[in-house]
Every structure is written in structure tokens, then in C-alpha cells.
Design a protein that fits this description.
The chain has 2 domains: 199 residues, 4-Layer Sandwich (Metallo-beta-lactamase, Chain A); 135 residues, Rossmann fold (3-Layer(aba) Sandwich), CATH 3.40.50. Helix content is 37%, strand content 19%. The protein starts with 5 loop residues before the first strand and ends with a helix.
Length: 355
């Protein structure tokens, strides 16, 4: 609060009553002069209609792309004010400064900076899907916090990594002092707030660790045996790896591990001339997330038609993940020879990882 009362972003609609109740503990919502909508996605904005009913006179500040998307969601003739990077709104002793952040991760995304307090409110950027009883980064377990921040980046922002680098450079070029970064998800970066900015620069470069991920699902345990044999081959070459059974593994966790690693080895039995539905979503994730600097390989079992390896390799190629070594198939249950071929596949992938 300053001479003008400003609300930056709202909340998801199921929590709108609680949200407005919390506002009332600070100020009567009818006294709000400016509402900033950094992003129109409903988890950030679907309380807007309820909030604006309390302060219909308020100016609704949006990015140059924001008016279209907010109107598209809520169909209300609010008093919109569009802003672009570098624009300022004086609110009394302090100013609001705006930075458009197109495609981080929607076209309408925007950052808001409060002078005086030196707080950057970047909406989705620098966030985490992390529930804590605490509010600030220095109050929580640091390893857990960084794992959640990385998971958030890997699963949401990876396709826009080039834009992340450019936007960080643009924000730093403004030479604004930053004492706090308050994203819309997770904890607030209070202690050394620019540490998460440095991590984003590192993650956006997508330099992989020299490790591997083996993921699979199995129908009658044959593909599992092959996955474990591939793991043995990787271990024999001293390449660290993680094994994921997709029937019981969280996809977001697996994607995070793939983001970190250099090699992803994918296995499935053949089902209806394709692959199991537990494995297919990961392939689609790889297409959408546009991971860089990866290599891949495929394996699987079959009974008659045997398309599993072909399907996986074709998808890896579409994802611009180089197929490092030819895949391995085993008919029915893998024989000793098949498992030895899997170990050799693991060793061959390991040698490519170490290059």
C-alpha cells in the first residue's frame, strides 16, 4: 500500500472467498485503486471477477497481450491499461515498473517490480510447486527447495529456455536492485534472491550431466529384465543411472531426471502395433518440452508384430534426440543372449555419454 492501493495478481477461483477475506484483514477491497494481472491463466486470475466486483473503479493493468486473454476468459468490460517493458506507474512514494515476459510461459506473461521495496513479482518464473508452512526460502530445506524449483523449470519452462536467457539479460540490463523475488507459486526468495536467477541461467543452457535414465513399463516382466540388464551395462562403464518403472513412477519426477541427464533409454512391450499407454505420455512430453543435448535408445519385448523399438526410435528422432545405438528386441521372454545384448546396449550408451 502507498498513496494508491495496488493488488498484484489474484488467486484460483475455489479460493476466492478466502482470498478476499485475507485482503479485508489488511484493507477494505473497495479501496483498491489498481489491480495488476501479470498472467491470465486461471490459477492466477480466476478470482478477478470477484475482486473487481468489490472495486469496479480500479484500473486493471495487463501486458500488451494481456487484455485479449483476460477478456477472453472473463468477458468483462473492465478498465484495462496495457503496459510494455519499461513502463512505470507512480503509486505515491514508489513506482511499479513492468517487464513483458512473452512465453514465460504464456504470451501475456509479465513481471512487476516495486521500487522502494525492490521486490520483483515475476508471476510463474522462479516458482515451485512446493507447499510449505513457511513463506521464505531461508526457512525451508534447501535441497528440497532446489529440487522443486528444478522440477518446475524442467516440466514447464524448458521449451522457452532461449527466451529465459534473453529475458534474464533484459531484466539485469535495467539495473534494478532486487531485494526479494516473489513468484506466484512456492516460497519467496528473500535471502540472496538472485541465486534462483543464476540457477535459471544454468538450467536454460541445458548442459546435461554425464548420466543416464532408463524408463520402461512391462507386461509380463520381460521388459523389466531387459531394463535391469541395460542398467548393469551402464554400471559396468561407471555411468550413474536411474531406473523408472512408469506404471508406478511420477511423470514429473521422471521428466526432471531426463532434463538433468544426457541419455534416455526407453523400453516397452509391443501393444497393438505400438507401445504401452504408460510409456507413450513420456514420449509426448519429450516432444513438447524440446529437450536439448540428449541421446537416446530403445528396447522392448514382443510376441508377433514387434513394432515397439521402431515406434520409440521414430519418436526420439522427431524429438531431435539422436538414437545413439540400435535398439534391442526380445521375442516373448528374453533369453540369456537377449539380456547380454541389453548389457551391451547399456555399455554402448555409457560410452556415448562419456564423450
Amino acid at each position: 500500500m502507498d498513496e494508491k492501493v495496488v493488488l498484484v495478481d489474484t488467486a484460483w477461483k475455489p479460493f476466492q472467498d478466502e482470498f478476499i477475506k485475507n485482503i479485508r484483514q489488511v484493507i477494505n477491497p473497495e479501496k483498491i485503486d489498481i489491480v495488476v494481472a501479470n498472467h491470465s491463466e486461471p490459477d492466477h486470475s480466476s478470482s478477478l471477477p470477484a475482486v473487481m466486483r468489490h472495486c469496479p473503479q480500479a484500473t486493471l493493468v495487463v501486458s500488451s497481450r494481456g487484455e485479449e486473454s483476460v477478456e477472453g476468459h472473463y468477458h468483462q468490460p473492465w478498465n484495462f491499461k496495457k503496459v510494455k517493458t519499461g513502463d512505470r506507474i507512480n503509486i505515491g512514494k514508489n513506482d511499479l515498473i513492468f517487464v513483458e515476459a512473452t512465453m514465460l510461459h504464456w504470451p501475456d506473461s509479465m513481471f512487476t517490480y516495486l521500487t522502494g521495496k525492490n521486490i520483483l513479482m515475476p508471476n510463474d518464473a522462479f516458482g515451485q510447486h512446493y507447499a510449505s508452512a513457511f513463506r521464505f526460502n531461508d526457512q525451508v530445506d534447501q535441497e528440497e527447495l532446489y529440487e522443486e524449483a528444478l522440477k518446475y523449470y524442467a516440466n514447464i519452462l524448458t521449451p522457452y529456455s532461449n527466451l529465459v536467457i534473453k529475458k534474464i539479460d533484459e531484466v539485469l540490463a535495467l539495473k534494478l536492485p532486487v531485494e526479494m523475488i516473489a513468484p506466484s507459486h512456492g516460497v519467496i526468495w528473500r535471502k540472496d534472491p538472485l541465486q534462483i536467477v543464476k540457477k535459471y541461467q544454468e538450467w536454460a543452457a541445458q548442459g546435461p550431466e554425464k548420466t543416464a535414465v532408463v524408463l520402461y513399463d512391462t507386461m509380463w516382466e520381460g521388459t523389466r529384465q531387459m531394463a535391469e540388464a541395460i542398467g548393469d551395462g551402464l554400471a559396468a562403464e561407471n555411468v550413474s543411472h536411474k531406473l523408472f518403472h512408469m506404471a508406478v513412477s511420477d511423470r514429473n519426477d521422471v521428466i526432471t531426471e531426463i532434463f538433468k541427464t544426457k541419455a534416455v533409454v526407453i523400453g516397452s512391450p509391443t501393444l497393438n502395433q505400438g507401445i504401452l499407454p504408460t510409456v507413450a505420455p513420456i514420449l509426448e512430453d519429450l516432444r513438447g518440452l524440446k529437450f536439448q543435448n540428449k541421446i537416446g535408445a530403445a528396447f522392448g519385448t514382443y510376441g508377433w508384430s514387434g513394432e515397439c523399438v521402431k515406434v520409440i526410435e521414430e519418436h526420439l528422432t522427431r524429438c531431435k534426440i539422436a538414437v545413439a545405438v540400435p535398439g534391442v528386441r526380445a521375442k516373448w521372454q528374453p533369453k540369456a543372449e537377449d539380456l547380454e545384448n541389453c548389457r551391451k546396449l547399456g555399455q554402448a550408451v555409457a560410452r556415448e555419454v562419456k564423450k
